[in-house]
Amino acid sequence: MSALLNKLRHLLHDRQGVAMVEFAAFLPVLVLLLLGGVDLARFIIVNQKMDRVAAGMGDLVAQSQTLTTAQLNDIYAATYYIARPFDFTGNGVVIVSSVSLVGGVLRVNWQSRGSGSLVANSKIGNQGGVATLPSGMTVTGNDTLIAAEVYFNFTSFFGLTVVPNTQIYHSSYFRPRLGSLNTLN
């Protein structure tokens, strides 16, 4: 019996393995922090990519003197390369609109969607309808404004709630450089 008591006393004072037990207790927390950090970094990168898609699309369209639907479809093809490695085709859409002052009212001259299959409505307005621009942005006289809007459905990679599944929206606005771009041929 005394041998058993001696072993129990020795076991109570033995500190070997404490670090392993502490590590095992904190391992799930460390893994969640790691996965959450990866998800957060991925969300930030997707936001930057979508901002580049919006700026790139608006800039490419604004460089044209005249624009046809076929040329616009060629410009949409660039989205795949700008958004890479993210799947824009299944999770996003680009909406390009031409806005000008018609009879004292901002109107959407033409509007086109491309690069993806996501269903989303333009925050600018619909073709032929009244246009809504961000505050402080003006269009005067014969000016035209090209608006590129990008929608992308972000899905958390690990299913964690660090960054919830959300729809990312970015827009950019450019004035045409060489022509009015009031019509899409």
Question: What's this model, at a glance?
Answer:
The chain is an alpha+beta fold and 185 residues long.
- In terms of DSSP E residues, the strand content is 15-25%
The spatial strand order of the largest sheet comes to 2-1-3-4
- The total count of helices amounts to 4
Overall mean confidence score, pLDDT? 88
Question: Which residues sit in consecutive blocks of at least 5 with pLDDT less than 50?
Answer: none
Largest sheet: 4 strands, antiparallel
Extended strand count: 4
H-E string: HHHHEEEE
In helices, the fraction of residues equals: 40-55%
Q: What is the radius of gyration?
A: 27 Å
Q: How many angstroms does the end-to-end distance come to?
A: 99 Å
Structural class: alpha+beta
The backbone outline, from C-alpha atoms, is: rod-shaped
Instruction: Give the oligomer, counting copies of the same chain as homo and different chains as hetero.
Output: single chain
Describe the structure.
By secondary structure, this protein is α+β, with helices and mostly antiparallel strands. It is 41% helix and 22% strand. It has 4 helices and 4 strands; from the N terminus they run H-H-H-H-E-E-E-E. The protein has a 4-stranded antiparallel beta sheet. Helix 2 (18-62) runs antiparallel to helix 3 (69-83). The longest helix has 45 residues, at 18-62. It is rod-shaped and about 105 Å long. It starts with a helix and ends in an 11-residue tail after the last strand. The mean pLDDT is 88.
SSE layout:
Blueprint: H1 2-13, H2 18-62, H3 69-83, H4 88-91, E1 92-102, E2 105-114, E3 144-154, E4 166-174
Antiparallel strand pairs: 1-2, 1-3, 3-4
Helix pairs in contact: 2-3
